[in-house]
């Protein structure tokens, strides 16, 4: 293992130096000047019926003009608004008991769908959101028809400015911004992605609670897109779609730390991709609890980007099947590389460590590279996998979506291996509940002539 000196990474490993510097940076960061301006001073009424957009934006602009500070939303108010824009040096302080409510109309948002957010910052520095209150996207207003399998949602695509069935506003977005802090706030009921970082540098997210309709698609928790030097800690995410999702659309994702989070989702709790045109490097996920999710830890590399230097440690996972309209088949760990379509490039995944992972799942671990995109230098150390069926959804299906091969019938195994060069397993235990053995064919399923350089030490499989 090239970068695990001598057996697995320590915090003193050279690879971690940028991440240690990142932690020190955030420890020393100070956001917000001395100025405090209340939105009520500029005419906000906070009754949840009248739009307070003009008053909120005026307070933000006045605070920025004074050199920065805090814009306060007093407790007890429901502040209905169209899109508002943060300015450099301004932190929104939403007090406990206060709510910012996103508008339900398309006219509440800019003409450009890429700027459809309730709160958005673009090209600014030293900005944030805090205070103990809530930002609510009123996502229930965007449900056309409720369905326990998956809700049918509004899509604002009639004008042609946005295509497809995902034309809905996000909740909070930071675009091309530096020194961003989001802390001690609840982000609730978004119609689409909840907290979106786009090409940001130095972002700190702490003590954020995210709640989305568990039956609604595309209401991701935190999307880290083309952003670097990001630290996420002590967050609670309970939503329908992917919970923490690094993406690389226009640039790489480097230096991401995620620690001490609780996650439940009908999709992937942690997922790299599927937007993956550029590289992912130096990512650490530590001390995370994943509950009743469709997938635990996932990589969907589809567009030619490469993944390297990633650690998952001290993670507890439980997975279960949901309706097949959601990507996933209850895999605790799902690592894949394959081209999205015939014209796509093939990326690779290398140098990934899974350490001290425990899982109770309805399906096995799925490690599937591709002929042009091998998975290499993986290590599993101190892993406990328990397999137990608890739903009636059919098994014996592997899910390669998006693109690739779609849904494929396949024997169910404790671990499936395809197109891998270099896999080390140390102290890995698999257990099957005796009442659930039917349908499980074998502990390991290896596609012939595609797997090389395997190492097993203290590996065990048993029925319990």
UniProtKB/TrEMBL annotation:
GO terms for biological process: carbohydrate metabolic process. It comes from the Eukaryota. Keywords: Glycosidase, Hydrolase, Signal. It comes from Musa acuminata subsp. malaccensis. SUPFAM superfamilies: Pectin lyase-like. Residues 1-29 form the signal peptide. This is (wild Malaysian banana) hypothetical protein. PANTHER family: PECTIN LYASE-LIKE SUPERFAMILY PROTEIN (PTHR31339:SF0), PECTIN LYASE-RELATED (PTHR31339). Belongs to the glycosyl hydrolase 28 family. Pfam families: Glyco_hydro_28. GO terms for molecular function: polygalacturonase activity.
